[in-house]
Amino acid sequence: MTPSDLDQRLAVAASLALAAGGYALEQFRDPEARQHKFKGPQDYLTAVDGEVERRIRAGLAESFPDDAVIGEEDGTTGDASLGAWVIDPIDGTANFARGLARWCISIGYVLGRDAVLGVVYDPVHDELFQARRGGEATLNSKPIRAASTPDTKHGIVELGWNPRLGLEEHVTDMTMVIGWGSAIRRLGSGTLGLTDVACGRSDAYYQRHIWSWDVAAGLAICEAAGAYISPFFETDGLTKGNQVLVAAPGLAPTLKTLLTLGRAEPKASP
Ligand code: LIP
Fold first, then answer.
1. How far apart are CA 207 and CA 42, in angstroms?
2. Overall pTM surpassing 0.85 (yes/no)
């Protein structure tokens, strides 16, 4: 895929994220529209998730009818082995459902073992993150870079969690990170956890198991912003998920220790 192909896809993805974000924001402001059910323990689902994914899929099909698409709600269409769009229509669904303003729309493109482009839109704050391989990462068209924080003693680290993971794994990770002198947080959107690293609002995001749609766009943005990104897609991350670490360069050497503990096997698939 040429740089021009990537630029064309990036522009379409940004346009679709902005349009779908306008719809999602209207729904977010309506408590009735935020009614939700559960796909599993602490795994929220709203009607907005499905409608946002439908709108994005329709737009991609119009511009790139031969492209494969993997979405959190509607699965895989097309041959993803040749590259695929990877969509999380609403990341941070629990926050969205409960009226907390920390959620976003995530559209990435994965080619082989690399996330080669990503668009993340936070409609509440009107913040559009985007990047493509070989280009710069931007927030509302302004360049962003990972923080220059020198080490974990001066760091803020977000540890993602979900009930698919065992309590002991999460406690182990918290104990290690606090032991390295970092402050920890868990804010409920893995995608925004990654973009926080890309723009320097935090220094790392780690989660023992997370799905490809949560991270595909954020990984492309973090890589372009100069952050360390773990090899999420080197095994079967696209279909089975994987552990994910993104980190400011000063913290990466220490935090990579977390990766040696290995991917947690989810208790139940979605
Ligand atoms: C969320 C992830 C987050 C994880 C949550 C949930 P969703 O994605 O972004 O990292 O901890 O359990 O999976 O379900 O809101 O799209």
1. 16
2. yes
Q: How far is the CA of 168 from the centre of ligand 1 (A)?
A: 19
Report helix, strand or coil for 36. Answer: strand
Strands 242-247 and 204-210: antiparallel
Whose Cα sits closest to atom 3 in ligand 1?
190
Provide the pLDDT for residue 263. 66
The counts of H helices and E strands in the chain are 9, 15
According to CATH, what is the number of the domain 3-143? 3.30.540.10
- The distance of Cα 84 from the centroid of its chain, to the nearest Å, equals 15
Query: Which residues line the pocket of ligand 1, CB cutoff 6 A?
Result: 72, 88, 91-93, 160-162, 189-191, 207, 210, 214
Query: Which atom of ligand 1 is the closest one to the Cα of 96?
Result: 15
Q: State the span(s) of the chain assigned CATH 3.30.540.10.
A: 3-143
Mean of per-residue pLDDT scores for the chain: 94
For the segment 168-189, what is each residue's pLDDT rounded down to a tens digit?
888 999 999 999 999 999 999 9
pLDDT in tens, 189-233: 999 999 999 999 999 999 999 999 999 999 999 999 999 999 999
**Nearest CA owner, ligand 1 atom 13:** 162
Low-confidence ranges of the chain (pLDDT < 70): 262-270
Q: Give the list of residues 6+ apart from residue 97 with CB closer than 8 angstroms, or none.
A: 34, 35, 36, 44, 46
For CATH 3.40.190.80, the residue range(s) in the chain are: 152-261
* Cα 3 to ligand 1 centre (Å): 31
| Nearest ligand 1 atom to alpha carbon 186 | 11
Topology given in CATH for the domain delimited by 152-261: D-Maltodextrin-Binding Protein; domain 2 (3.40.190)
Q: Which residue has its alpha carbon closest to ligand 1 atom 9?
A: 190
